[in-house]
Amino acid sequence: MDPIVMAAGTALVSVMATDAWARAKDVVVGWWRRVRPDHAEQVSVELEQLRADAVAARGCGDTATEDALAGVWRLRLHRLVTENPSLRAELERLLRNDLTPLLSAGDQSTVAAITQTANVKGKNNTTMQAGRDATATPSP
Q: This protein's superkingdom (predicted)?
């Protein structure tokens, strides 16, 4: 699955359980109105229903439910981007400019870690990425 889609699904569910939810919902539903106007109202209703689940999960530390909710939105966004690949760039802007700034520092780190990429070419090249601490011992 595209890392932007994964990060957007995670960011959306993470912001559901915060005071910034109203702003995030307006932005997401507005985006949906532009890209799939026939589904915007349904998306708005579903977001509110899932928000109740996200708030309850966050309140009791139920990360499995939060992960499942993120999976629902990842799949939905994946289908949308698969149907219309040009929406990926718009989704990335929505993620970077609108959703990520509404997240706590910890949630921002989680979303940023999902979108790490690396390309290594050539012989004997090594790359290592980590969301936080990492230790590596090169082989002899």
A: Bacteria
